[in-house]
Amino acid sequence: MRLRHLLVLALGGVLGVGCGDDDGGTDAGRDSATPSMDSGRDSATPPSDAGSDSAVGAMARGRDNPPALGVQIDRMGRAAITTATVGTFMADGPERDALKDGYNANGDRNTWTATYREPIAAAIAILDGADTVCGNQLGYDASGGVASAYGFLATILADDRLVIDSSTGACPEYLGYEAEVLGVVPEGGCGGRTPNHDVADRSYSVLINGSLGDLGDGVDGDNVTHDEDTFPFLAAP
Q1: Would you give the distance in Å from CA 220 to the centre of its chain?
Q2: How far apart are CA 217 and CA 201, in angstroms?
Q3: Domains contained in the chain, number
Q4: Is residue 39 part of a domain?
Q5: What was the pLDDT predicted at 45?
Q6: How far is Cα 224 from Cα 131, in angstroms, rounded to an integer?
Q7: Does residue 54 fall inside a structural domain?
Q8: Which residues contact 159 (CB under 8 A, 6 or more apart)?
Q9: Range of the domain at 159
Q10: pLDDT of 102-125, one tens digit each?
C-alpha cells in the first residue's frame, strides 16, 4: 500500500491523462491435517502432554517434515508489479480487493496471459504518461493502439513470476532477465533479486520512463549490506 499511495501522490493530476485511448486475518488455505502448533522445537524434549505419541507431531519442520500445502493465497512474482498494474487506479473497496486476491490465488500459468495482459496494458499506458512523455516506457511499440503499443511489456509482466537461471553465479540486476530479453543489457545474470537490489526504483523506472533506475521513491536501501553469498543472505538484525 505504501508504494501505491506514494505513486498516486507523486503523479497527481498526470494520472488522469495517461497514454493511448479508452479501449484500452483468515487463512482459508490452512490444511487442517497439519498439527495445530508447529514451534520448530527440537523433538528431543517430550511435549507437556506425555499421554500422546509425539514422535511425529513434535518433529521440527524441515526437509524430512515439510508442511502440507493448502490453497494458494499468494505468488512469488516480481516486486511491485501487482501494486503497479493490478487494480492500481480503482477505488479502494471489495471489488479491488477481490481482483487482487484472485490474481494472487491464480496458480494456473496457462491462463495468466489471456486473463491479465489487457488490463496490465491499460495500467502501464497510464504509468507511461506519468513523466508527461508518452512512448518512453521500456518495450513501447508505436505501431498501433494500446494493445499493440504496450502489449509486448504487458505480456512479459502478465507472466508474473521470478525467472531464475541457477547456472550463473551472478545476479547484478533485478529484472535482469527481462532486460536481456528486451536487449537493454547483454547479460542479465540470474534473473532473480537479492536483498541489496532497490526493486521499487527499478520497477517504477521501467514502467514510467524506460530506464533501469532513474526514478526513486526516497528509500535507497537498507541501512546494512546483506551477504549475497552465505545463507540466509540477510545481515544480522
Answers
A1: 18
A2: 6
A3: 1
A4: no
A5: 45
A6: 32
A7: no
A8: 109, 112, 113
A9: 2-8+69-208
A10: 999 999 999 999 999 999 999 999
Cell of 23: 479501449
Does 38 fall in a domain?
Answer: no
Report pLDDT digits (tens) over 4-27: 554 544 454 444 556 765 444 344
Q: Is residue 185 part of a domain?
A: yes
pLDDT digits (tens, 9 = 90+) for 166-180: 787 788 888 887 778
Q: Tell me, what amino acid is at 131?
A: D
**Residue 132: CA count within 13 A, CB half-sphere:** 3
| One-character DSSP codes across the chain | -HHHHHHHHHHGGGGGT-SS-S-----TT--TTS-S------TTSPPS-TTS--TTTTSPSBTTBPPPP-S-------TTHHHHHSSTTSPSSHHHHHHHHHHHH---GGGHHHHHHHHHHHHHHHHHGGGS-TT-STT--TTSSHHHHTHHHHHHHHS-S----TT-S---STTHHHHHHTTSSS--TTSS--TTS-HHHHHHHHHHTS-SSS---S----SS---SSSTT-S---
Predicted structure pTM score: 0.69
